[in-house]
Design goal:
By secondary structure, the protein is an alpha/beta fold. Helix content is 31%, strand content 17%. Strand 4 and strand 5 form a beta hairpin.
């Protein structure tokens, strides 16, 4: 490749967003994706931008951290958020998508772009030309070793988990009911399986004692100098059985909290509730919200069928765990997402330590824009810290070694002067959201619309 040409490694959310942004700016892009030639153990198709875990991109409200991030990405012309909006499913105030249609939309957009060439091949070493590494948390062992060698320090290893999916027709709607928290129970987007205290306590007891899957060799491997290691989980994506071990009421105050819901059979709030969210446009599949797990498949069937309403549930996908790989970004990256050691090498996605689909897309957007500006000899950009995207990237490139861990968007990342502090949390978040939008609008104008 010569001139204004860019290699992008990884056809996930970040890689696809980066490819689109660079291509839209006149850069010729080669997008290298190893699937289906090399499997990750978690993906099930060869499509680009396949959603492995949840089908939800998070809240769509701007006074929620993820909602603000989504709004900022819309303002910046994100391809993937546009595709998400086009394939959205009913999910209350969240942005959930039909995962097959979403990946199809993204794949079609990428394949049809005249400036993008998609190549199905495994990249085992960091390319020597201008490149964005967006190989994701399931980066192949050979490329991970190349990255670790280049950076001069080891990767971070965390374990992540994905939730089971249930056939809607096998949910017992004589027990389960539709409803959103603090919404209309009969017309809600979620299916709720209510539990009495006795049912909840029995479920927790069986969940804790259930047999778990033996980790695969590549997940158990701890290379010299690795940060993290075997058995270390990312706090925001704990397996349900690990969370249950933290205390008898941990689930009732966590993913199974019943606040804002009433069981129409009793007119009262249940002791605990398991929620299921629509997973495809046809409404035939529902995923179990917050039920990431590493139980054996037979134990998942046995234990999860203890949940009222799921006693005869059929699972089209069981939960499973996989290794997630992260770099120590504060020592490796600039806020432009350039590597410290090579100005023509950028990184994006979960590899840099951001969590959540929207966060991955945001880093892909910035890496794609900056790689294209680098190739055109133009100054690189940093997003203002007052924006959610800017604050998230600032965190992953400035956090201390002691405190660094993968981070999701949250309002605690945003800078706040003493005179801007509002005691009421909702009002404070609304203020931050309005401030972010105004700052980003000004920034976009100053940069000629990018």
């Amino acid at each position: 490749m010569t001139g204004r040409e860019l290699i992008i490694v990884g056809g996930g959310l970040a890689g696809c967003e980066a490819a689109w942004q660079a291509a839209q700016r006149g850069i010729r892009v080669r997008l290298l994706e190893m699937r289906p030639l090399v499997s990750t153990g978690a993906h099930v198709s060869d499509r680009l931008a396949e959603l492995v875990c949840s089908n939800s991109l998070g809240s769509n409200q701007i006074d929620r951290a993820t909602g603000l991030l989504l709004h900022e990405l819309r303002m910046l012309g994100s391809l993937l958020i546009r595709c998400a909006d086009q394939t959205a499913l009913p999910a209350g105030q969240a942005l959930a998508v039909d995962r097959e249609r979403f990946s199809q939309e993204v794949t079609q957009a990428i394949l049809s772009h005249p400036n993008i060439e998609v190549c199905r091949e495994e990249v085992k070493h960091i390319p020597e030309t201008c490149c964005i590494l967006a190989s994701g948390p399931l980066t192949s062992e050979s490329l991970a070793a190349s990255i670790a060698h280049f950076l001069g320090h080891a990767n971070l290893f965390f374990y992540d988990a994905i939730s089971p999916i249930v056939e809607a027709s096998t949910i017992n709607m004589e027990i389960a009911f539709r409803g959103n928290r603090h919404g209309q129970e009969e017309d809600g987007d979620y299916i709720n399986c209510p539990m009495t205290r006795e049912e909840y306590e029995r479920f927790v007891e069986e969940l804790i004692r259930a047999e778990r899957i033996q980790l695969r060799p590549f997940e158990e491997q701890i290379e010299h100098g690795v940060r993290g290691g075997k058995g270390q989980f990312f706090e925001a994506c704990l397996p349900i059985e690990v969370l249950a071990q933290r205390g008898k009421e941990a689930l009732a105050f966590g993913p199974l909290r019943p606040i804002g819901l009433k069981d129409p059979r009793t007119g009262r709030r249940p002791y605990a509730v398991v929620q299921l969210r629509q997973d495809n446009l046809a409404g035939t599949l529902y995923n179990m919200v917050g039920f990431q797990t590493n139980l054996t498949f037979s134990e998942q069937k046995r234990v999860f069928r203890l949940i009222p309403g799921l006693e005869n549930a059929e699972f089209t996908r069981f939960g499973q765990m996989h290794r997630n790989t992260y770099i120590f970004s504060p020592q490796a990256l600039k806020p432009t997402l350039q590597t410290m050691r090579r100005p023509d090498l950028f990184m994006a996605g979960q590899l840099v330590g951001v969590e959540g689909y929207a966060g991955n897309i945001a880093t892909g957007w910035l890496a794609g824009v900056n790689a294209s500006r680098y190739l055109m000899g133009r100054p690189l950009v940093q997003l203002p810290r007052e924006t959610m995207i800017g604050s998230l990237i600032y965190y992953v490139t400035h956090a201390s070694e002691k405190d660094f861990q993968p981070m999701k968007a949250n309002f605690g990342l945003l800078p706040c002067r003493e005179d801007e502090w509002v005691k009421n949390k909702k009002q404070r978040h609304q203020y931050f959201a309005q401030r972010s939008i105004l700052v980003l609008q000004k920034w976009i104008r100053e940069h000629g619309g990018l």
